[in-house]
Write a structure and sequence with these properties.
Helix content is about 45%, strand content about 15%. The chain is α/β, with parallel strands linked by helices.
Length: about 240
């Protein structure tokens, strides 16, 4: 399987979020999607329900894995945890990109593995009032840019950011960095608990290297057909 880059093969740009209760449910979803997708996100809920062995299983099957655990702790703990994550064969790993020490520790823990470190800038379910609750007065777009530049300058490989900020982030961190955008929906999809969402076309055209899609695929009557709809939208965006 090729290394993750900011200019991946067309069908590797879609990351399907396995936000399900346990590893068996995740396996069923992966089987149902078939070759509709080759890249999967394993998040905290699934990690807590036996998801780490699943990462290795998916990698053994030739699939790619985004391990989305959003680490934030003292440097030594982050470094050692990232080293353990790298042993699973995960392609991507998230940390909170809020300070230089955390990012640098993650980069050190990754060692010489091919796993890429992504800094989470501002979670896509947060709005201006939520950020204000943290006593942060910086507008969300400026906060995203600050954290994106900090992450890359401290040794990270890219960021997770809303598609609404993807264009500015891409300009700030350059063409070689990863920009992974969650909160992606087709025009007729429900928003769920996301507040800053975009379509595949707008995300790709804004500079996203990868898009993350969950419920519009995983809760669809036909997950494979739903995944193909997103693949078609990505292809159309790249050709336009």
């Amino acid at each position: 399987m090729p290394e993750v880059t900011a200019k991946p093969d067309e069908r590797e740009r879609l990351i399907v979020a396995l936000d399900v209760a346990d590893a068996d449910a995740a396996r069923e979803l992966v089987d149902a999607i078939g070759d509709g997708a080759s890249f999967y996100k394993v998040g905290l809920e699934l990690v807590m329900a036996g998801g780490l062995p699943l990462v290795e299983e998916l990698r053994d099957q030739g699939r790619m894995v985004f391990l989305d655990v959003k680490l934030l702790d003292i440097g030594n703990t982050v470094e050692r945890s990232v080293a353990r994550a790298a042993e699973t064969g995960a392609n991507l790993l998230t940390i909170h990109g809020v300070d230089r020490k955390t990012v640098a520790a993650a980069a050190a823990g990754r060692g010489d593995s091919d796993m890429k470190i992504l800094g989470v800038t501002v979670l896509t379910n947060l709005n201006v009032d939520d950020v204000a609750d943290q006593k942060i007065e910086t507008p969300i777009p400026d906060l995203v840019l600050h954290r994106a530049k900090l992450t890359v300058s401290a040794g990270g490989d890219g960021v997770v950011a809303s598609a609404l900020e993807a264009s500015a982030v891409r300009a700030a961190i350059g063409s070689e960095a990863l920009v992974v955008t969650p909160g992606i929906r087709l025009a007729d999809d429900a928003l769920g608990d996301q507040t800053r969402v975009a379509t595949p076309a707008s995300a790709i055209q804004a500079g996203a290297s990868h898009i993350v899609v969950g419920r519009p695929i995983t809760q669809a009557d036909d997950p494979r057909a739903a995944a193909e709809r997103f693949q078609e939208a990505i292809a159309a965006a790249l050709s336009s």
